[in-house]
Amino acid sequence: PPQVSFNLELEFSCSILLDHAEVTLQATSDSTEATPQDNVVKLSVPIRYEPNLFLSSNTNLHRYEVHPLGTFTHSSGPEFITTVKVQNLGCYPIQNVTLHMALPALGHRQATILSVTHVLAENATCVLQPPSEGTQVVPVPPEDLLHTDR
C-alpha cells in the first residue's frame, strides 16, 4: 500500500512552558472504506527544553613568575582573584545546574602550586573539596625554559 512520510517541526513559546505536546493526525478520503476508525492517531510527545548556558571567567592577574627549581620560597605568592560566571542566555528557566572546577594543585616534587583562600558566591552554593582518596592527582611536570628567549 502507498505510504506518506512527513516531519512536524514545532516552535514553542518562551512564556508558556509545556511538559508534553499532543498531536492528532487524521487521514480522510472520498472513497468508501471498511475500517475508517484506524484513520486517526493521537500522539503525546514529552518536551525537553534545550538550555543555552554561557560560561565565562576573568582574572585580575595575567602574569605569573616562574622560579628555577630549588630557588622558590615557601611563602605564598601574589593573590589573584578569578571570577567565574554562568549565564542562562536562553528564555527557559534552568534548575539543578552543577559546575565542577578542577584547580591545579601540585607541581614538581608535590609542591603546592595553588591554594584557595576564600570563595565568594552569588546566587549559588559552593562546596570546596580536596581530592578524594581514589582521585588521581597528576602533578605538573617540570619544564626546562633555560634555552627559551621569551
UniProtKB/TrEMBL annotation:
GO terms assigned for molecular function: integrin binding
UniProt GO BP: cell adhesion mediated by integrin; cell-cell adhesion; cell-matrix adhesion; integrin-mediated signaling pathway
Coiled-coil ranges per UniProt: none
GO CC annotation: external side of plasma membrane; integrin complex
Source organism, top-level taxon: Eukaryota
Name of the protein this chain belongs to: ITA10 protein
Originating species: Cnemophilus loriae
Gene: Itga10_1
